[in-house]
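Lab channel / #folding
Pinned by the channel admin:
"Please post every new chain as: sequence first, then the structure tokens as a reply. Keep commentary short and put observations after the output so the thread stays searchable."

First post following the new format, from NK:
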Amino acid sequence: MKTMVQSLSARDQAAWQSQVKAQLRHLDELTTITSAEVVLEQMQDGSPAYRVRIQLEVPGPGPQEGASRRERTAAENLAGPPLHAEATDPTIEAALLKVTRELERQVQSRNLARPER
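Reply from TO:
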């Protein structure tokens, strides 16, 4: 999995990066992740204090209705639409947890929508 973590004004970057990687490993157990882009942002003015955005590239969007067998096979081998979530919270830990839970929900929803093979 290719991972890019960008921190905008967040302190203790090494500690946040290890927490982010732990959450990504958890999500990678649920589905294969080819790449992840993570942005941790400490807001300058106002509340909540932190914003976390994660976008995941995962394989295959699933077959399109009415597609030929060849088209379905090709579609499954390509990256599907990215999964993404964003959350804000007074603590970076809580914002990261909210984003992870939303991505878990998206992965589970996607897995349920995928037809049995």
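NK: The chain has a mean pLDDT of 81.
TO: also worth noting, The chain has three helices and four strands.
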